[in-house]
Write a structure and sequence with these properties.
By secondary structure, this protein is α+β, with helices and mostly antiparallel strands. It has three domains: 74 residues, no CATH class; 88 residues, Pdz3 Domain; 126 residues, no CATH class. 57% of the residues lie in helices and 18% in strands.
């Protein structure tokens, strides 16, 4: 159950990210063609108002298809229509005319000529595979040559659409942390027992949830800090714990404390926690401060990864889901929401790295295109993307090796 909740939480963050792109694109006059959670092939899909909504079979993220991300090039027609042209050589004439128009920058005329090409493709005797490839290619070309194509937009619109993804993750994280502050954050631990650890000295002594520990070896503890000091001071010797149970005072059987993994002597119970709630404005202020601290920490981690010192800090979706499910089990919904917010922050920061195909790479190229006054060709995008994809895959597999194998020394 906890794993399912963790997976749904990660899917929610992806949905939030893609929704940022989607709604901002529509707001600035672009018309997205698809909005998917996961990648095709589609498990479920439906079309509404010209937009295809779906859930993909590959659960590695999500995407919004915005038409015309790249300026069309003559080679695009060769890529999309090579098979159809091979099977129907008569298509060559109109294909070459459109290639010439695209090369000369006559995009409106090229789009008008697409109607002629579409009709010629329909009339040609093509195999199903060639016809399907040609149809898909013509759709891509029509979108790329359309007035709402991404590459045609002013720089601020392009940057706004791309930044909206990580920006929405950032806002979502701040709001989520603010909600946690309003619901209540741990203020102090009390002497009341919330849970007794299995196979612990406390369980052997007969400690129960809701017991209030009042003394250790006859020495009274006024608060949890004093209680903790008395337990740690036992240094492995048996302690006799006195508790208030309902209206009775009970002295438990003596049991020796044990050494924890972090070197502390413990009895083996979880104290009940007192929560403090904050108002909306104060919660928002505290959330912004905490988000900034976490952002600085993430930035430091990225710096260590670059220098090779932070390899063991990388995690894949497998590790994120596993850690989230453990948090749900150990810390409850408040801590899980906080962790979910930190993951959202991480997604925002990682996506802003200036690497294609990440959002930061698209923003960087949009700014370059704005400065040079014309769009960068698809070929350059693809060459730069190879480097970015390679780095992202390396990070993914390093994280996966850490999550599955525990990393290597």
């Amino acid at each position: 159950m906890n794993v399912s909740i963790a997976i749904l939480g990660l899917a929610l963050l992806i949905l939030v990210h893609e929704a940022g792109h989607f709604f901002t694109a529509r707001a600035v006059g672009m018309s997205p063609r698809r909005f998917y959670l996961g990648f095709p092939p589609a498990l479920v899909k439906v079309k509404r108002s010209g937009i295809e909504y779906g859930i993909g079979a590959i659960p590695l993220g999500g995407y919004v298809k915005i038409p015309g991300m790249h300026r069309p090039a003559p080679s695009d027609l060769d890529v999309h229509l090579a098979r159809a042209r091979h099977e129907a050589p008569e298509l060559g004439g109109v294909i070459e005319r459109i290639k010439r128009l695209v090369s000369e920058g006559e995009m409106a005329e090229a789009r008008a000529r697409l109607t002629e090409l579409e009709r010629a493709v329909r009339d040609a005797e093509l195999s199903p595979a060639a016809a399907k490839a040609a149809e898909r290619g013509l759709t891509e070309l029509r979108d790329a040559l359309g007035p709402d194509a991404y590459w045609r937009q002013r720089t601020w619109r392009k940057v706004a659409v791309i930044f909206a993804g990580p920006g929405t993750n950032l806002v979502f994280a701040i709001l989520l942390i603010a909600v946690v502050y309003m619901v209540g954050v741990p203020s102090e631990a009390s002497r009341q027992v919330d849970r007794v650890d299995a196979n612990s000295p406390a369980q052997a002594a007969g400690l129960r949830p809701d017991d209030v520990i009042v003394a250790v070896n006859g020495e009274r503890a006024q608060d949890f800090d004093e209680l903790s000091q008395l337990i740690r001071g036992s240094k492995g010797k048996p302690i006799r714990v006195t508790v208030k149970r309902g209206n009775s005072v009970v002295v438990l059987e003596p049991e020796a404390t044990k050494l924890s993994s972090d070197g502390r002597w413990v009895f083996g119970f979880r104290p009940d926690v007192v929560y403090k709630r904050y108002g909306p404005l104060e919660s928002l202020e505290l959330s912004v401060r905490e988000s900034w601290r976490v952002t600085e920490a993430i930035g430091g981690s990225l710096g260590r990864i670059v220098t090779g010192e932070g390899r063991d800090e990388i995690s894949s979706p497998v590790g994120i889901v596993d850690a989230s499910s453990q948090v749900i089990d150990e810390g409850g919904i408040r801590l899980y929401l906080r962790i979910l917010a930190f993951i959202s922050l991480s997604l925002a920061i990682l996506n802003l790295l200036p690497l294609l195909p990440l959002d930061g790479g698209h923003i960087a190229f949009s700014l370059v295109e704005g400065l040079r006054g014309r769009a960068v060709g698809r070929e350059i995008y693809e060459r730069v993307s190879v480097v970015g994809i390679a780095l992202v895959l390396i990070l993914f597999f390093v994280g996966l090796s850490n999550d599955i194998g525990g990393g290597v020394d």
